[in-house]
């Protein structure tokens, strides 16, 4: 292998796949990055067997070939420190490679490319295409409710529920549940649970216009022009989330409120209620406003009235302020609506959307029953 | 002065002897059931029906399809020390049957009204015998199938003192169902059916498979994860099911030991299990084990106590060694849990050894389908929840033991590093001889209130003058204890309300747990658990205490249930100790921080208000003392 490329391109490529470099040190090959040169392209690949990432950059390929740099993480650090400009990379035997820049050269040890895991084969009938911007919003809006407790792996994931023209993401930690849905250009139907951590990484990496998704029983591929991101699927049955949503005719109270103002009030209250399980009390007074209160035995208490349009029955309930904040931060609309069913039953928070919007976002929150 | 000598000592009549003996053997309705079922098993039955009314206080009926008794045997059976299982004392070392002392029936008959019907294959008619006040009388002949049915009415009718000590019927019933579940595990080849007040409580298939027996007793969630164990060493055979290290409970209630199909209680075996799992489970967590030992009868002594639930091993070291080895062999096996750690759920790359496990789930599915025919509840449940719900749950957990482990192991290792051992605290306390003085010399006045801070040493220790010497206080340890106690007090209040769950958790309980739960559902609500009855022994967990915001609600609930049922009380603060430790540790003053005099006095004042103020929550001492005598000696003033 012999190539010329720009330091910036090289760094971009290895940083993208760097997310998949294993830090566990159990199988040395998984700590490496595979670099292959073909057709004026450099392709990088790394995997920790949970996820695999491939990324390609443009390069001047003098002689095609491939190598595996032994310590992927260290390699990224080293490349970051190189001066900008052209880098010449040439393999000197079956494994090792020399990087030449300005008047210097750097010798990097390699591993056997034959040992490097291949990408899993995928035969997926379920696939489609969605704008990266929308895809990232779906992740942002759902990931907040994914559980971090590993005793129930299914809940640590985000469910991708694909039904022909719609892509829906769902997450829950059993205290709250998020559903974000958008139209997409796809076909086939299926349900796939992807680790939420992986989805988070993915949304940070993706930058191009749109992303292709191909899903199979065990793996889901996310592809852009330059990047292929493969994640394993968490095995297990996701709860039937539609069943958790309360029926429309059980709504007792409907609230319309300015997102930013509500967010600010809840922030103050939550700060105060931190030592009190973040309990924030909300009293919805019909045709009036929301009376919010929170207290901390050692610090003090707070009372605020928040302007809102409230229809239906008046009642009061207590909520975990942190959960409210999580939701308000990702609503991404000027106003939100809240449909409530009572003081000990679920409430649904939704952004106020335009008629023609092909998206839907629901944040289901359960009250805290105060003795 | 000639007075007729009054004879004080006389020989008790048989009936009285039996009543006294009954006190040892028949403690409560459960003991009656145990003796009768023991007999039924010894009679070679393949199915045994137990029908209990009013927790056994009104009546207990045990019907078997064993080989039955002839007329003469039936009449003789109720005499004291009447047994068919033993002829001479020389046979004692070779007891292979469950019963042998010949006390059971006579003891039962001494404290209740007993009716028995029995027929052997040799006769066409069954004989009906009634026993009243210890005397058996043939009442008649009847048509019946081969086997024996014994019915016990009005238990303890003549021993009011005993009756007074019995608990409420449903609690007695809990003991009985617990007992029958032990029998189900002990004899998977026998079909047991237990009814209470006409309601079917337990029904085992008797297909000879231990896993299916475990399924009957513990439900799918647990049984689906148990690992099979097989071990043979000379005459000793151990078979059973044990939990993987990812599945544990907060009490030893789930330890089941059987020696030659006899359920026994044995602390030594419990200790061996603890040792085998040592360091693999988080602190104060215990595995679920069902271990069945086959041993030559002469190597054990079952004749220890009339209830026959205790046992002595002639060569304990040998049994212990094998028990530990057998468990370790399963736990260390590549294709159990450990494989899951490395490759299960990983991607299909071209790496060796990526075949997944999970065969047990299939097995359970088959059993479930088979059972569905037996029990309508299961069918209904299946329809409600959609098939595979529980399977999925099992699969999930089986697929990912690693992660569930790591969080706990991480906390554990942190604690271990910090030297947390429940015993350590006590130990540390024992090493502080002046502790005893607290009540003596300093009686009436708290030690900490008498300390006068002199300054700080190395930014870490507070140096103080106090009664009879110089005191050094570890400021971090002290502050940690103060925080710990205040957090614990907050926890204990439990008044934080209940965080309701968006996705309720389905709980499958044992009968005993379910009974307890039904009785305590309201006080549970006070603590923040919102539980709803879902039919039979299944419940829905709809809310958990509001402070519990991360983690698995079902884990919290089961941990709570285990502790509360075995210990009778539940101390939230001690249950979630790890979290408190971390919280306390994080918030506390670090070493190398400068303290003013006021700070030091403040710490002392706070410590003075605590009950437990001599060690930090990790068990290290907070305060050490250098006596004046010691100082004088050093200065050679002695």
Provide the fold topology.
The complex is a heterodimer of chains A (371) and B (638).
Chain A: E1 2-6, H1 7-18, E2 33-38, E3 41-47, E4 51-58, E5 60-63, E6 65-69, H2 72-81, E7 86-91, E8 97-101, E9 104-108, E10 110-111, E11 126-131, H3 132-143, E12 157-163, E13 166-172, E14 176-183, E15 185-187, E16 189-195, H4 196-205, E17 210-215, E18 219-223, E19 227-232, H5 241-244, E20 253-258, H6 259-273, E21 279-284, E22 289-296, E23 300-307, E24 309-312, E25 315-320, H7 321-329, E26 335-340, E27 347-351, E28 359-365, E29 368-369
Antiparallel strand pairs in A: 1-5, 1-7, 2-3, 2-6, 3-4, 4-19, 6-10, 7-8, 8-9, 11-15, 11-17, 12-13, 12-16, 13-14, 14-28, 17-18, 18-19, 20-24, 20-26, 21-22, 21-25, 22-23, 26-27, 27-28
Chain B: H1 14-25, H2 29-42, E1 47-53, E2 59-64, H3 71-76, H4 104-110, E3 113-119, E4 126-132, E5 135-142, E6 147-153, H5 160-164, H6 169-186, E7 191-196, E8 199-203, H7 210-223, E9 227-233, E10 236-242, E11 255-259, E12 262-264, H8 267-277, E13 289-294, E14 300-301, E15 312-313, H9 316-332, H10 334-342, H11 359-372, H12 376-385, H13 389-399, H14 401-417, H15 422-430, E16 452-457, E17 461-466, E18 469-474, H16 475-493, E19 498-508, H17 511-527, E20 530-533, E21 538-545, H18 553-567, H19 572-575, H20 577-587, H21 597-608, E22 623-627, H22 628-634
Parallel strand pairs in B: 1-7, 11-13
Antiparallel strand pairs in B: 1-2, 2-6, 3-4, 3-6, 4-5, 7-8, 9-10, 10-13, 11-12, 14-15, 16-17, 17-18, 18-22, 19-21, 20-21
Word description of this protein:
The complex is a heterodimer of chains A (371) and B (638). Chain A has three domains: 114 residues, Roll (DNA Polymerase III, Chain A, domain 2); 117 residues, DNA Polymerase III, Chain A, domain 2 (Roll); 120 residues, DNA Polymerase III, Chain A, domain 2 (Roll). Chain A starts with a strand and ends with a strand. Helix content of chain A is 19%, strand content 45%. Chain A has 371 residues and is of the alpha+beta class. In chain A, a hairpin with a 2-residue loop joins strand 12 and strand 13. In chain A, helix 1 runs antiparallel to helix 2. The model of chain A has no long low-confidence stretch (mean pLDDT 91). Chain A contains seven helices and 29 strands. The radius of gyration of chain A is 25 Å and the shape is elongated. With 638 residues, chain B is an alpha+beta fold. Chain B has four domains: 190 residues, Histidine kinase-like ATPase, C-terminal domain (Heat Shock Protein 90), CATH 3.30.565.10; 111 residues, Ribosomal Protein S5, domain 2 (2-Layer Sandwich), CATH 3.30.230.10; 41 residues, no CATH class; 124 residues, formyl-coa transferase, domain 3 (2-Layer Sandwich), CATH 3.30.1540. Helix content of chain B is 41%, strand content 21%. Chain B is built from 22 helices and 22 strands. In chain B, strands 5-4-3-6-2-1-7-8 form an eight-stranded mixed sheet. In chain B, strands 9-10-13-11-12 form a five-stranded mixed sheet, sandwiched between helices. A four-stranded antiparallel sheet of chain B has the order 16-17-18-22. In chain B, a hairpin with a 2-residue loop joins strand 11 and strand 12. The N and C termini of chain B lie far apart (76 Å). Chains A and B meet through strand 29 of A and helix 13, helix 14 and strand 19 of B. Strand 29 of chain A pairs antiparallel with strand 19 of chain B.
């Amino acid at each position: 292998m012999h190539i010329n490329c720009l330091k910036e391109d090289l760094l971009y490529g290895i940083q993208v796949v760097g997310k998949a470099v294993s830090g566990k040190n159990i199988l040395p090959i998984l700590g490496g990055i595979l670099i292959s040169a073909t057709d004026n392209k450099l392709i990088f690949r790394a995997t920790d067997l949970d996820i695999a990432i491939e990324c390609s950059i443009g390069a001047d390929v003098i002689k095609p070939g491939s190598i595996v740099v032994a310590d992927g993480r260290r390699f990224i650090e080293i490349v970051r420190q190189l001066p900008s400009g052209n880098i010449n990379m040439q393999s000197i035997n079956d494994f090792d490679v020399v990087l030449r820049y300005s008047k210097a050269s750097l010798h990097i040890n390699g591993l056997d490319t034959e040992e490097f895991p291949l990408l899993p084969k995928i035969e997926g009938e379920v696939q489609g295409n969605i704008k990266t911007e929308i895809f990232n919003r779906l992740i942002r809006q759902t990931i907040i409710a994914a559980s971090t407790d590993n005793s129930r792996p299914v809940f640590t994931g985000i469910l991708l529920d694909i039904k022909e023209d719609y892509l829906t993401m769902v997450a829950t930690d059993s205290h709250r549940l998020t559903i974000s849905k958008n139209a997409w250009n796809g076909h086939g139907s299926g349900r796939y649970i992807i680790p939420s951590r992986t989805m988070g990484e993915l949304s940070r990496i993706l930058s191009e216009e749109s992303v292709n998704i191909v899903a199979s029983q065990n793996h889901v591929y996310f592809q852009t022009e330059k990047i292929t991101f493969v994640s394993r699927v968490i095995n297990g049955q996701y709860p039937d989330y539609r069943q958790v949503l309360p029926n429309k005719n059980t709504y007792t109270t409907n609230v319309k409120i300015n997102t930013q103002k509500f967010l600010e009030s809840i922030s103050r209250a939550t700060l105060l209620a931190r030592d009190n399980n973040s309990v924030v009390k909300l009293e919805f007074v019909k045709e009036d406003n929301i009376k919010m209160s929170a207290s901390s035995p050692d610090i003090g208490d707070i009372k605020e009235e928040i302007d809102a349009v409230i229809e239906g029955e008046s009642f009061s309930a207590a909520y975990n302020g942190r959960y409210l904040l999580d939701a308000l931060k990702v609503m991404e609309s000027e106003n939100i609506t809240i449909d409530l069913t009572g003081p000990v039953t679920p409430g649904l928070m939704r952004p106020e959307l335009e008629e023609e919007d092909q998206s839907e976002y629901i944040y289901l929150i359960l009250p805290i029953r105060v003795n | 002065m000639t007075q007729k000598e009054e004879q004080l000592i006389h020989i008790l009549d048989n009936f009285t002897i039996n009543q006294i003996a009954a006190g040892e053997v028949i403690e409560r309705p459960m003991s009656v059931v145990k003796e009768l079922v023991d007999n039924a098993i010894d009679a070679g039955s393949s199915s045994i029906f137990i029908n209990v009314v009013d927790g056994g206080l009104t009546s207990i009926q045990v019907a078997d399809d064993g080989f039955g008794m002839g007329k003469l045997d039936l009449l003789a059976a109720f005499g004291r020390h009447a047994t068919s299982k033993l002829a001479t004392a020389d046979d004692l070392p070779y007891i292979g049957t469950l019963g042998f002392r010949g006390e059971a029936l006579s003891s039962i008959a001494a404290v209740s009204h007993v009716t028995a019907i029995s027929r052997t294959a040799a006769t066409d008619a069954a004989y009906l015998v009634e026993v009243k006040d210890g005397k058996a009388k043939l009442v008649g002949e009847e048509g019946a199938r081969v086997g024996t049915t014994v019915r016990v009415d009005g238990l303890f009718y003549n021993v009011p003192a005993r009756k007074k000590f019995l608990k409420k019927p449903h609690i007695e019933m809990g003991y009985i169902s617990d007992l029958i579940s032990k029998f189900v595990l002990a004899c998977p080849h026998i079909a047991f059916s237990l009814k209470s007040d006409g309601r079917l409580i337990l029904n085992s298939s008797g297909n000879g498979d231990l896993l299916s027996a475990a399924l009957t007793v513990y439900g799918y969630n647990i049984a689906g994860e148990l690992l099979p164990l097989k071990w043979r060493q000379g005459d000793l055979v151990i078979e059973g099911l044990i939990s993987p290290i990812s599945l544990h409970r907060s009490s030893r209630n789930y330890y089941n030991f059987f020696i030659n199909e006899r359920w026994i209680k044995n602390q030594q075996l419990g200790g061996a299990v603890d040792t085998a799992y040592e360091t693999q489970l988080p602190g104060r967590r215990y595995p679920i084990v069902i271990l069945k030992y086959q041993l030559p009868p002469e190597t054990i002594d079952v004749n220890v106590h009339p209830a026959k639930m205790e046992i002595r091993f002639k060569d304990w070291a040998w049994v212990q060694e094998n028990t530990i080895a057998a468990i370790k062999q399963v736990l260390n096996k590549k294709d159990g849990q450990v494989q899951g750690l490395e490759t299960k759920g990983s991607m299909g790359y071209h790496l060796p050894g990526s075949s997944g496990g999970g065969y047990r789930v299939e097995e359970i599915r088959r059993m479930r389908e088979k059972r569905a025919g037996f029990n309508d509840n299961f069918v209904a449940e299946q329809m409600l929840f959609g098939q595979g719900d529980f399977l999925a749950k099992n699969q999930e957990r089986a697929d990912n033991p690693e992660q569930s482990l790591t969080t706990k192991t991480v906390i554990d290792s942190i604690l271990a590093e910090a030297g947390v051992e429940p015993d350590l605290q006590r130990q540390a306390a024992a090493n502080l001889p002046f502790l005893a003085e607290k009540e003596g010399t300093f009686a009436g006045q708290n030690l900490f209130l008498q300390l006068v801070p002199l300054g700080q040493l190395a930014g870490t220790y507070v140096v103080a003058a106090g009664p009879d010497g110089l005191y050094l206080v570890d400021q971090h340890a002290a502050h940690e204890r103060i925080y710990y106690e205040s957090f614990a007090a907050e926890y204990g209040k439990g008044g934080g309300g209940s965080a309701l769950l968006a996705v309720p958790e389905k709980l499958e309980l044992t009968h005993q747990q379910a009974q307890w739960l039904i009785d305590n559902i309201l006080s549970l609500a006070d603590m923040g658990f919102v539980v709803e009855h879902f039919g039979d022994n299944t419940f829905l967990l709809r809310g958990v205490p509001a402070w519990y915001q991360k983690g698995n609600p079902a884990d919290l609930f089961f941990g709570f249930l285990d502790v509360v049922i075995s210990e009778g009380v539940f101390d939230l603060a001690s249950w979630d100790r790890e979290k408190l430790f971390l919280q306390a540790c994080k918030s506390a003053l670090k070493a190398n921080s400068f303290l003013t005099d006021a700070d030091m006095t403040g710490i002392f004042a706070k410590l003075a208000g605590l009950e437990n103020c001599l060690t930090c929550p990790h068990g290290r001492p907070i305060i050490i003392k250098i006596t004046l005598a010691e100082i004088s000696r050093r200065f050679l003033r002695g």
